[in-house]
Amino acid sequence: MNPKMVVTVVYIIAMFMASMDATIVNVALQTISQELQV
User: Fold this and answer.
1) 37: phi > 0 → left, psi -120 to 50 → alpha, else beta; which?
2) What is the pTM of this model?
């Protein structure tokens, strides 16, 4: 694999992880606020 391909794959994985993290937080936020009674 050439370096440009490695950078591209790492970037795509990082963006996927960031979007998954945001989705998980948005889904869990309602439950967290209910548990903390906010």
Assistant:
1) left
2) 0.69
